[in-house]
Amino acid sequence: MLGNLGLDVKELGRASRIVIELNGRTIIVENANVFEMRVENESIFQIVGGEVSEGGKIEEERYEPSSEDVMLVAAQAGVSEEEAKSALIEANGDLAKAILLLKSRKV
Fold first, then answer.
1. Domain CATH for 94
2. Which of 9, 4, 53, 6 is closest to 34 using CA atoms?
3. For the range 61-70, what are the long-range contacts, defined as Cβ-Cβ under 8 Å and sequence gap of 24 or more?
4. Which domain holds residue 97?
């Protein structure tokens, strides 16, 4: 019946955790069924059931470079391990980017 109206509904399955981040507020829904409704080029996601709670701001995991990566970048760029570690964190673990970043600062 909904297909006649141009609405395609598909059950995506059960989600173990859904996080909705709004301005200053985080809503967490656990163990809910998720449906997708498509109308033309638009999608509407519907969350059904589950346990709802509100949480604080979710912090992203901070990248921590391995000691091997730090030593490699320090040796290649000719800088201290402290500088190499900072560059790796800034480059989010991209070794080549961290080396180029350090070399460009030395010029």
1. 1.10.8
2. 9
3. 62/89, 63/88, 63/89, 63/92, 63/93, 64/89, 65/89, 65/93, 69/93, 69/95
4. 67-106
Asked whether 88 and 98 are in contact (CB, 8 A), the reply is: yes
- We report the CATH number of the domain holding residue 11 as 2.20.70
pLDDT score of 73:
93
Residue ending a domain, among 33, 55, 77, is 55
Mean pLDDT of the chain: 86
What number is the average pLDDT over the span 28-38? 93
Give the pLDDT mean for 97-105.
90
pLDDT of 13 reads 93
Radius of gyration of the chain (CA): 23
Specify if 61 maps to a domain.
no
**Residues 47-75: tens digit of each pLDDT:** 998 888 887 655 556 788 999 999 999 99
* Packing angle of the helix pair 81-90, 95-106 (nearest 10 deg): 120
